[in-house]
Amino acid sequence: MKITWLGHACYLLESDNGTRIVIDPFNPDIGYKVPNVKADIVTKSHEHHDHNATDQVLGSFQVIDSIEERVVDDITISGINTYHDQEEGSKRGENRIFKYKVDNLDIVHCGDLGHMLSIEQIEKLGNIDILFIPVGSVYTIDGKKAYELVKKMNPKVVIPMHYKTSQLKIDLRPVDDFLKLIDTYQQENTNCIKISQDNIMNISPVVVLLEPK
Fold it and tell me: Looking at the 3D structure of the chain, how many domains does it have?
């Protein structure tokens, strides 16, 4: 499977069979350049303009914005409902965490998670090979809470997201707040990485992808 960071919390997952999933597409007014990307599936963690801009995605695709398990092409998608803040959504509403089964890999994208997960929620998510987790604070959990949650969720690979970069116009904290708590991480000199069951144990526990151009 190939993972491409498109900016902010938006990723393109491409299965070995060619199925393309775009996660949390953003409106260009946040600062990142919107790529010309086609999708077969688009998932939205919540209805904020930096996560739900399906009009920016090309192709004929199915939009998924609920947590019921379904199978689309060769991909299984399910999820759990969470909140965008620490006050059960009273400030920023609800948030969906999606889990994707792609090429026999369990992938979890936390969207704009704003609170720590319960033991029951973590157990419901089950095995996690790759975890996308927000670390930029302000509108989500911060680097310290992300670090604590990673220890509880125990993924094989973590890809931090939703943090301040040179392009982003939203005032978030940088990824360094999270990385300073990590013993080992790797910085990829690209916004893409290929991960499979064959190579995942050879990849650093935390991977930082290069800012999209």
Answer: 1
Q: Which amino acid is at 19?
A: T
- Which pair of structure tokens corresponds to residue 25? 């597409």
pLDDT digits (tens, 9 = 90+) for 141-199: 999 999 999 999 999 999 999 999 999 999 999 999 999 999 999 999 999 999 999 99
In terms of phi and psi (left: phi > 0; alpha: psi -120 to 50; beta: otherwise), the region of 156 is: alpha
* 75-83 vs 94-102, strand pairing mode: antiparallel
Distance CA 12, CA 24 (A): 9
> For residue 158, how many other CB atoms are within 10 A of its CB?
25
Report which of 93, 75, 74 is spatially closest to residue 84, judged by C-alpha positions. 93
As given in the structure block, the two tokens for residue 63 are 């939009």
The CATH code of the domain that includes 79 is 3.60.15.10
Contacts of 211 (CB under 8 A, 6+ apart): 7, 165, 166, 167, 191
Contacts with 137 (C-beta within 8 Å, 6 or more apart), sequence order: 143, 172, 173, 177
Tokens of 146: 């992300």
pTM: 0.97
Q: What is the DSSP string of 60-78?
A: S-EEE-S-S-EEETTEEEE
Phi, psi of 144 (to 5 degrees): -70, -45
Q: Which domain holds residue 191?
A: 2-209
